[in-house]
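Re-run with default settings, no changes from the original entry. Doing this only to confirm the output is reproducible before filing.
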Amino acid sequence: MKLDLNCDLGEGEPIGRTRALMRHITSANVACGGHAGDVRSMAACVRLAKQFGVKAGAHPGLWSRADFGRGDASLTPDEFELLLLQQVSAVQAIAREAGLPLHHIKLHGALYHASETDSKLRRRYLECVLRFWPGARIYALAGGAVCRDARRVGVNVWPEVFADRAYRDDGTLVARGEPGAMIPSTRGAVEQVRQVMKTGELTTMSGARLKLVPRTVCVHSDSENAAQLLQRIASAVR
């Protein structure tokens, strides 16, 4: 099976960069106005997604622009549900107007990790998807709790690996503030994706082998070499 290639977009990057990255991906995670984005950027991303035949998804994050949605995700399940309704529905409405369906939902930053560790938030997340967006997939950490529980309750989930991030032995990502969290070279990131595709394993920061079966691969748009990396990975996964 060919791997999907996704990228977080509409996060304040120049529109020229959005366009350049969109050329090499198969699905776009559109920032919904929480950690980044506004109506104009959402519309631009959806328009480009339609132009390049890219699947459009929502990328909801904490209402916290100062730390780009990567701070403390201390919210209740009710607050989480409201955030999802506000942000995902915004992208869905804009996509619908452009004639595109909402293909997927991928949580951003602190929400992505909180849904893995907090069972109450995870349960509410999956309940919301089933109730409000039953036709959408979710992108979640390959091998993680969200993938496991999504399958159990019948949510369509695409396990995700990150091309440009380092992993711990337990399958979690090395925190961004720690040394070695990002894979700086294009070659290293491409090799990580090729290893997963060929062997179903990924080498962690400690040198251990982690078994993963992804359906989608993420490259972050704010990586310095994102366009080159996406182009190289696109050639590898297709």
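The chain has a mean pLDDT of 94. The helical segments are 15-22, 39-52, 77-97, 109-117, 119-132, 145-153, 186-199, 226-237.
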